[in-house]
Every structure is written in C-alpha cells, then in structure tokens.
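Figure 3 (text version): structure tokens given as input.
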C-alpha cells in the first residue's frame, strides 16, 4: 500500500495543525488592540478641522441641508461617508465628539484585524510563527495613527476601508468567482475620501496587468471579470457624482479647488513632506526602499506587486499635490499598514535566505519588528505629542471664541476667519472661510497679488469679495499677525486698513485669557486727504510679519519694521503701533510715544497705542490726556475689561468717584475675575 503524499499548503494558508497557533496569534492581536485603545485614550482630542464636518452634520439634521452656511451649497468637506455616518448618532442626540471618537477607534481596530488577515493572505506558507502579526503590531505602535484615530476625523475609517478593499480584491482575484465585494468596498473607500478613486484606478491597472499575463484561453474570462469589477464600482460612483453635480454644481469637492495645485512649489512642498515622514518613521527611507528592493528581487508575486503599486502610487500622488497642511502625517497614515506589510514580508524573506533553521533564526522577524516598533515609537512620540498639545490649545481657544461670538456677534452679520472649525461650530454664525475651503467664490475665482510670501499651502483668496460681504469680525490664525496668504493680502486693500482695527475680548470672561480680532468700523477711520493708500511694494507686509515674529528681539524686529516702512502705504497705522512697541521695549520713551501718536493720528482706533499713551500721560500726571486716551479705548473696544478699569482709575484720580463706579461695574461684567477692578470698586465703596 502506497503512502498518500501529503498536500503542500497553498500560499497564504495554514494546515489544520496550525489552528492552535492561530488562536495564540489572535490572542496576541487582541492584546495589541487593547494597547492601541489605551494609546488612543491618552491622545483623545478633536482636531479643529473635525468641527467643519460636525457643522455640516448639524445643518443636515436641522433640515438646512448638507451645507456649512444655510443657503450656501458648498461641498467644503472631503469625506461624504464619514459625514453621513456621524449624522446617525447626531440624529439620535448622541454627542458628536464622543461618537467620532468611538467610530474612529473602532475603525482603527478594524484596520489592525484586516491587516492581520491580509498578512495571512500574502505571506509565505513556511513563514515563522507570529510573523503575520508584524505589520499589525507596527501599525498599532504608530503614534501618528493614534493621533488621527483620536482626532474626530475620517483617517482611520479611510485606512480600514483601504485595507478591506485590498484584502477583498486579492481574495477575489485568487478565486474564480466574479468580483462582488471588492468593488463595493472601493466604492465606500472613494466615498470616504476622493483619493479612493486613485486607489481603485491603481487596482484596475493591476488587474489589467493580470489579464495581460493570463494564458490566452483564460483571457476572455478575465476580461469579463474585469468588466464586472469596473461596472460594480463605476455605477455607484457615477450616481454619486451626478448627485454632487446636481446639489453642489461641481465635479469635485470645493476643498480640491481651494487647495489643489500642480506646480514646482507644490512639488517641493510634497517632497519636503515625504522626506520629513521618511526621517521620522522610515529611517531616512531605508525602511521603505530596502524591503521593496528585496521583495522585487525575491518575490514578485501578484499580491506583493499589488501592495507595492498601491503604496508607491499613493505616495507619488501625495508628493505631487504638495503633502498636507496638518501635522502628524495625516496623508501617509492610511498606507502605514502597506509599508509595514512590506517590512514584514522582507523579514520573512531574509529568514528564507538563511539556510539554518534554528529557533533563533526563526524568531528573527519578531525580534527585529519589536526593535523597529520601539525605535519608531520613541522617535516620533515627542513630535506627535507636541502637535497634539498645540492642537488642544488651539481648539480650546477657538471653542471659547465661538462661544463668545454666539453671544456678541450681531444677528445676521457674517464673520470671516482663516481657522474655521470650532469657531464656526460653536458660534453658529454665518462664517466666511478666508481660505476658500467652504466658500465657492474664493475657491473658483481667486485673486492674486504679486509679491506676497507665506509658508501656507492654501494660496487662494479673494479679498475684494470678502470685504464686499462686510464681515463684522475677521479672525486671523495667529491673532493680529498676518500669516496666511489670505491674511497678508488683506493689507493690500485700503478698505481693510481704513475700516478694520485690532480689538481685544475676554474668553469665558477670564481677565487673563484674551483673544484679538479685527473689528469693522461703521465709518472709515482714516483721513484719506492726509494719508495716501499707495503701496510701493508688497514687501511691506512680508517684512511686517517678520518683524512681528521677532518681537522678543527688539533690535531685529526694528530692522524689519523699518524695511516695511520703506514700501508701506501711509495709512498703515498698525505698523507705527508695532514700532512704538519696539521702542518701548528698548526703553526709548520719546520714540515710542512719537510712534504711538502717529498711529492714532492715522487711525484713532489703534487700541494698544491709546493704552500706552494713556499710561505715559498718567506717569507724568497729565490726567486729562490719560482720560482722553482711555476713553478712546472703551469707545472703540467696549469688549475690553482693562480699558474700563483704567478709565475708572483715572476718573478717581481726577476726583470723579461717582462716575468711576459704573465703569468698574462694566469692567467686572466683562471679566468677573478682574481683581484690579474689584479691589478698586471695594476701595471707593468704603470711602
């Protein structure tokens, strides 16, 4: 009786004897998941951009439609599926922030599991035990993934759907049945982010290569399978595109028109973005190039080639569009499992190259992976945590600003901002996005002013249109300092310089928590017959910004301000106010006072100049002059508690105790923890 030959396991499968080992792998995967969830809890926060989606969701369930501002159909989001998913808990009155966190973590856990399943699909049948966990383990240890999973944004969902689509495609490709689930998964991927269409295109390219390589008798079947793959994907996408055109009027999301571009500047920005990612996670790119080279040399199987195609094709796209403006490598996070799968399979191949089969050799992939995971985690953790803390501070400030606007903004009046998420969500006011992400006019009909420089990726603006809408408040991303292109370009407009001025207000009534924005005056503030609006060069605003960045080094700041003065228009009062601050820092009292006086002579709403002039007048016992300047502060900036306090103190010095009382009460109404106002009120009450 002949002995029956033992069947060799097919690639990607295990024999029945491997079932206990697989249970151990699943237990370890569960442990990875628990660690991942704990890591996510430590990074729990909401990215400011998430509030843009939240505002669309709120408007949808309130019956205003899928819009940012009621009455304005603009697709200012790039994640239709994520928005619709969040609308479900919002409709059920479940907190949107909590729902976004739960859905994000669930998507992250799904990514880890699918990565493991995909690992078992593509790895060698003789791979060392536990090696199928390497990619999932490295992914779970990545702090950037945790950051974006916890952010309230769609990144983890996009990653999980990408891994699901790739796994289903390879599973159905290796079978003989028609494609069914893979194209539907790619539909969901494309509805989550537009880049899903690119990834499906790469997938279809891979299938076309598969058809070309197929034996001639099988090509007819392959072509029919390809047609089904394309049809099941294309029909839903075309239906969605038809709805988008009918509802919004454009083929792509408005954010594409506002941000996208193909130029040398974008290519350089994208290259820098990739190199920073490579330095942070890929050991200067070696962790990407060496595994890819080894796999192309040793194992050019269809699954491996497919994953490399997705990985490098997507990276080239990210570089070509200039990378991302947000921190922590949001655009590269979705392909982290693909990168780590390449690393995993390269380690498996290295074991195959070594003839010895001892336990130490077979434990090599796990040992190296643990070392890589540790180094990768520690290298990036401080960077990711720093950006997390900065975003926490930004969102807290923008949240409080939005809550302040909800109370103080005039009904029906628009507000403009360059950082729009939490401000828009918590204020509920009509909001103009200065960068055009949620504004069709700015995105599709931008202005261009030659000579403006900025490090921002968002280069489009239309300030003629913006000012025509007469926003009551204009918020810059960094307070009074113009950073973005749209912010700097505003200073090229005489209307802005003559109607808007920096104004202080207290967040949550906290005396020590100030924000500043540009407030619109109902009438022009500058005497046009005395001060020219002629601009010699836009270098003035670039130098002005550089000077503001050097406030802590007054001599350096002064150099830039003087350069700005050479080309600035005569009606640019803010420049003289900043010059006054520099001279004051240098203890040059006479020059500071002269600069402040020049600022208020040009524009009487220069609040800080009046404050400093009032202080100087009080120091020389000129109470009448001090009273005049402090009165101007509260006239133009009635939201500022300090102005009322100083005016009251000066009134007492002039002998008007009765008149000081309502001024102090007003100061405390604006800021209940204004201890100076409280103590002064108690003092005059006892008198």
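Below: residues designed for each position.
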């Amino acid at each position: 009786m002949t002995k029956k030959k033992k069947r060799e396991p097919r690639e990607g499968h295990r024999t029945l004897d491997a079932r206990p080992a697989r249970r151990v792998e699943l237990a370890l995967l569960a442990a990875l998941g628990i660690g991942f969830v704990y890591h996510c809890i430590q990074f729990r926060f909401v990215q400011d951009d998430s509030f843009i989606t939240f505002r669309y969701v709120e408007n949808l369930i309130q019956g205003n439609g899928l819009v940012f501002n009621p009455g304005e159909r603009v697709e200012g989001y790039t994640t239709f599926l994520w928005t619709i998913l969040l609308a479900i808990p919002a409709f059920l009155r479940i907190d949107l922030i909590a729902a976004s966190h739960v859905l994000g973590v669930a998507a992250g856990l799904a990514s880890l599991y699918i990565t493991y399943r995909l690992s078992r699909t593509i790895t060698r049948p003789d791979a060392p035990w536990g090696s199928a966990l390497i990619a999932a383990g490295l992914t779970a240890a990545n702090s950037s993934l945790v950051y974006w999973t916890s952010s309230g944004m769609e990144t983890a969902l996009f990653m999980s759907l990408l891994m699901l689509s790739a796994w289903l495609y390879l599973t159905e490709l290796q079978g003989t049945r028609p494609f069914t689930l893979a194209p539907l998964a790619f539909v969901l991927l494309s509805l989550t982010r537009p880049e899903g269409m690119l990834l499906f295109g790469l997938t279809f390219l891979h299938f076309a290569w598969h058809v070309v390589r197929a034996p001639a008798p099988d090509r007819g079947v392959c072509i029919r399978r390809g047609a089904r793959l394309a049809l099941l994907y294309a029909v839903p996408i075309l239906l969605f595109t038809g709805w988008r055109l009918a509802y919004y009027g454009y083929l792509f999301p408005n954010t594409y028109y506002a941000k996208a571009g193909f130029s040398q500047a974008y290519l350089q920005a994208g290259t820098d973005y990739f190199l920073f990612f490579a330095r942070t996670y890929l050991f200067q790119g070696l962790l990407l190039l060496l595994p890819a080279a080894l796999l192309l040399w040793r194992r050019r199987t269809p699954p491996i080639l497919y994953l490399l195609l997705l990985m490098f094709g997507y990276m080239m796209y990210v570089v070509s569009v200039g990378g991302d403006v947000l921190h922590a490598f949001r655009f590269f996070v979705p392909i982290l499992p693909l990168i780590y799968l390449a690393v995993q399979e390269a380690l498996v191949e290295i074991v195959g190259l070594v003839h010895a089969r001892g336990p130490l050799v077979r434990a090599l992939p796990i040992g190296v992976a643990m070392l890589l995971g540790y180094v990768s985690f520690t290298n990036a953790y401080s960077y990711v945590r720093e950006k997390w803390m900065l975003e926490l501070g930004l969102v807290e400030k923008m949240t409080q600003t939005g809550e302040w606007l909800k109370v103080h903004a005039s009904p029906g009046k628009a507000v403009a901002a360059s950082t729009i998420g939490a401000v828009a969500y918590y204020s509920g006011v009509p909001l103009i996005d200065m960068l055009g992400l949620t504004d069709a006019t700015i995105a599709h009909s931008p202005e261009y002013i030659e000579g403006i420089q900025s490090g921002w990726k968002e280069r489009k603006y239309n300030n003629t249109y913006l000012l025509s809408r007469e926003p009551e408040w204009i918020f810059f991303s960094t307070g009074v300092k113009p950073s973005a292109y749209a912010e700097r370009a505003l200073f090229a407009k005489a209307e802005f310089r003559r109607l808007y001025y920096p104004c202080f207000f207290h967040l949550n009534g906290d005396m020590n928590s100030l924000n500043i924005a540009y407030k619109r005056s109902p009438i022009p503030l500058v005497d046009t017959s005395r001060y020219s609006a002629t601009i010699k060069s836009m270098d003035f605003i670039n130098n002005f910004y550089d000077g503001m960045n050097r406030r802590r080094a007054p001599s350096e700041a002064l150099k830039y301000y003087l350069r700005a003065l050479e080309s600035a228009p005569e009606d640019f009062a803010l420049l003289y106010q900043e010059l006054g601050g520099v001279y004051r820092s240098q203890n040059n009292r006479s020059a500071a006072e002269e600069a402040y006086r020049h600022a208020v002579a040009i524009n009487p709403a220069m609040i800080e100049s009046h404050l400093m002039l009032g202080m100087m007048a009080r120091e020389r016992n000129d109470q009448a002059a001090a009273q005049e300047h402090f009165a101007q502060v509260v006239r133009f900036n009635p939201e500022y508690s300090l102005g009322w306090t100083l005016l009251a103190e000066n009134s007492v010095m002039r002998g008007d105790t009765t008149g000081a009382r309502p001024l102090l009460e007003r100061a405390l109404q604006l800021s209940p923890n204004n201890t100076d106002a409280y103590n002064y009120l108690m003092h005059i009450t006892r008198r």
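The two ends are 118 Å apart (CA to CA).
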